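We store chain and fold; thus.
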Amino acid sequence: MVALPTESEKRGFSMIMTRCHLSICAAMCFSATAPAAIAKPALHSIFTDHAVLQRDQRIDIWGTAEPSEAVIVTIADHSVRTTADARGKWRVSMPPMKAGGPYKMSVASDSGTVQQLDDISFGDVFLCSGQSNMEMQVKASMNADAEIRRADYPEIRLYTVPRASSPAPVAELPQGGAWKTANPENAGDFSAACYYFARELQPHIGVPVGLISASWGGSAIESWIGADALAKTGKGPEVALLRSYAMDEKLAQTAFGQSWERWWKSSFPQEPNPWLDKNPSGWTAAPTPMRDWKKWGDSELAQHNGMLWYRKSFTLTPEQAKSGTVLHLGQIDEIDMTWLNGKPLAQSFGWGTNRDYVVPAAMLKAGQNDIVTNIYSGWDMGGMFGPAEVISLELKDGSKIGLGDGWLFRKAPKGAGDPPRAPWLAIGGLTTIGNAMIEPLTPYRLRGVLWYQGESNAGNAKPYRELLATLMADWRAKFQNAELPFLVVQLPNFGQPVTAPGNSGWSDLREAQRLAVRDDKYSGLAITIDVGENDDIHPPNKQIVGQRLARLARHHIYKQPVTANGPVPTSAIRQGNQILVQFAGIDGQLVTHSALAPIAFEICTTGSSVCRFAEAAVQGESVAIEAPDSNIDRVRYCWGDAPLCNLYDSAGLPAGPFEIGIQ
């Protein structure tokens, strides 16, 4: 299951994408903006007024200048001199500084100061990353108006990294980011989970807190992991294709298109190949004006999430065939795979965004030409949206041949699943978001990372345990801190309440998160199984998420005398007709809410996925579960997409979902 973007996310993405042009922009979504031509010494864009630098660690400062130009960097009364390299890049290291501020920071050449920053503080810096539940802003959270009015925390600052993706690592952040202080003017745009975490934590540590928010709604974890690390998880061929794309886009698009064709042929051997199909039977005129296929009045498409084929034929003169340059397909939602005259042209992603593809001269011909595009939409709107006057073939002289009418469509066969995705796509690709939004940050020193992601991987949760471990190891290497703490938010409840034991992708994902964190001594897990909402994948109560993350930080990072995250199972042991599940990390004692006994415990049969609910009772720091059958090999608790669970400790912290083998 893919996490659902909000309408504002779709609109924001669409507005950005409409400014993009040509196939490389459409395929990559939008790349990190290249820096302006080097003219004078300048700090990297992560350094702005109000920045927070990590206390008690060596500080790296970097930027650009003229090649071989001498540069002097000053913070407070510390100055370091260096020389830019042949590419105009420079970097210096400053000695560790204690928490405090405000200070001034400057970069200068021998001719004098060129850039000066004000209100620089030293404190603790946290990177907040993930998908839409981390990206969700304070103004969308619970009691937003009141929260924004009371936001007066000058010691809390946040830098939001604008969305960007790139097939290869880049050094510059996308334009538009700046450090901002937490006040009523700025706080509404802050990441809610990130902000509430800092608000809860800061009084307990007494130093400035800097937050870097780098998130993208709907993104899968694979899009955040570096290429070398991801290749070791079995993604080597896909990573190789992505690297090929960075070198030769057209070659990679062709190779991917051919693999897409092989997928179709193996998945639907009895079906025609629509990109080659000249037979008009099975194709129907697409309704006009172009719009969401769910609005066509076709009962089979009214709730259709999946694929639909589109086709358009047009005629060119010999001269026109030689001068076609760009194919404009208008707005498409969500992923298209497009062919021209039976040959793969491109695949790209976007929520209702323009598709503009460079056309190699050899792909067009005099006479009839055929465009075929397969469009996949996993949620909400889907299809081609035009407008008709935009859909066209642009010629070298700037004139256009209209292609907005006469489109046909064909339904995909029943049971068609998700089609392959090119590795250069943004939220569903590999490494691309990390290349543009994390890689430029890696010299910046951090105190910890907050990670809230997983919804987009719940449909294939099995690899997630390894992928999360890989992400943590990859980022620790990039940020040069082998002990960098990760505070992971476990997925909340979402969907229909559980009425009977069964399999659940969301539960599998939560268990993968639990096990990855359990196996990593520098990470902690924030339980949110009681925070979600059945019909809202973006629960607005981010205050409690922030509180639980802050509690984790106080326990794991600052070693303060608080429990970390509620009762944690340590063992399940059979004792006669009962199974005794032992818990640790309890603040006070185990308690149950709204019932005399704990609910949502399941016992599972050996060698089977069959489980059943079981009666249970609290016994001190354990829960005793009735299990008279001898063929029970494991216990599950709080399983399902949206289970109702009532086991807590005295501090109001819930026991999280788990599956544990019986000793």
Notes: The CA atoms of residues 80 and 663 lie 60 Å apart.
